[in-house]
Each structure stands twice: as structure tokens, then as C-alpha cells.
Design brief:
CATH class: Alpha Beta
Number of domains: 1
Bound molecules: adenosine-5'-triphosphate, magnesium ion
Largest sheet: 7 strands, mixed
Strand content: 25-35%
Number of strands: 7
CATH architecture: 3-Layer(aba) Sandwich
Shape: globular
Length: 142
């Protein structure tokens, strides 16, 4: 799907948010500044969570809205080994009652559950600075 500006990315995030439910996992892939954190911000804003910051250095940021919905925002960019992933404890959140987002999830692919939804972000520098392409791969859930 082609996205021509941040507002369209926000609308995409809201569409995904509308279909989401507690326990969902969203794996976000794509180069630096392709819009992964922007997507999570838009998604979380929709549920009334306003102050989202990038978890690049904290690995995991946890948010909770007034209705008790928890959002776990993770970033595996700096993870280099299975041991490091274990130390951070990403897996502790995968079977929770909240919604998980994992930026650079491919770096910890071996611990991502099968039911996760993958979203790929592409930034086409040859087009213009606001253009992005997104692809969403949803597993059929029983
Ligand atoms: N159509 C668009 N969709 C999303 N972000 C856009 C768009 N056009 C411009 N931007 C800008 O691109 C930047 C995307 O940054 P963001 O932090 O979301 O990237 P990221 O994929 O999380 O990168 P990183 O891997 O470094 O964490 C933001 O500054 C945002 O304002
Ligand atoms: Mg980011």
C-alpha cells in the first residue's frame, strides 16, 4: 500500500488499531526512519496514550491507558545475540493481555510467536521525503 504523507500513515495505524485486540503482536520491519515508531505513536494515540518515546535505548517501554489496555513497545535494533534477547526479557510480554510492538523484530525472529502480524515499512528516497510503502502480513488466527 502506498502512503503519501504522515496523515495517511496515521490513518493506516488507526485502521490496524480498530481491528486489533489484546494479546496481538505487531512486528515492525524497515530501515531507519521508515515510520515504525510513528506508526506505534499513531496506534497508541488512538487508544488515548499520548507520550510515546522510542525504546531504542530502553529496549521496552510500557504504557497503559485509562481502560487498562497495556502497550509494550519494544526495539530489538541493538540486540546481537539470543542471550541478550533473554536478558532483556522480550518474551515475558508475548503471551500477555496487552498489545506488543517490536521494531526490528527480525533480529529476534527465533522468539517471535507464529501468530504475530508483520508490517514492512519502505522509504523510497527517490520519490519524496513523505512517501512510504507498507505491507501487512497477518496470520490467520483460529
Ligand atoms: N508518510 C510518513 N509516514 C511516517 N513517517 C513519516 C512520513 N513522512 C515523513 N515521516 C517522518 O519520518 C520519520 C519516521 O521516524 P520513525 O522514528 O517513525 O522511524 P523508525 O522507523 O521508527 O526508525 P528507527 O529504526 O530509527 O527507530 C518521522 O520523523 C516522521 O515525521
Ligand atoms: Mg523507531
Amino acid at each position: 500500500m502506498n502512503i503519501y504523507n504522515p496523515e495517511e500513515m496515521q490513518n493506516f495505524a488507526i485502521k490496524v488499531a480498530n481491528k486489533s485486540k489484546r494479546g496481538d503482536i505487531f512486528c515492525l520491519e524497515g530501515e531507519l526512519s521508515s515510520g515504525k515508531t510513528f506508526f506505534v505513536k499513531s496506534f497508541a494515540n488512538f487508544f488515548g496514550i499520548k507520550k510515546i518515546s522510542s525504546p531504542t535505548f530502553s529496549f521496552i517501554n510500557i504504557y497503559r491507558n485509562k481502560k487498562g489496555l497495556e502497550i509494550y513497545h519494544m526495539d530489538a535494533y541493538r540486540i546481537k545475540s539470543h542471550n541478550e534477547a533473554n536478558d532483556v526479557g522480550f518474551e515475558d510480554y508475548f503471551f500477555s493481555n496487552g498489545i506488543c510492538f517490536i521494531e526490528w523484530a527480525s533480529k529476534i525472529k527465533y522468539i517471535i510467536p507464529d501468530f504475530a502480524t508483520w508490517i514492512y515499512f519502505e522509504k523510497k528516497l527517490n520519490f519524496n521525503e513523505f512517501f512510504r510503502r507498507v505491507k501487512i502480513i497477518t496470520k490467520n488466527k483460529s
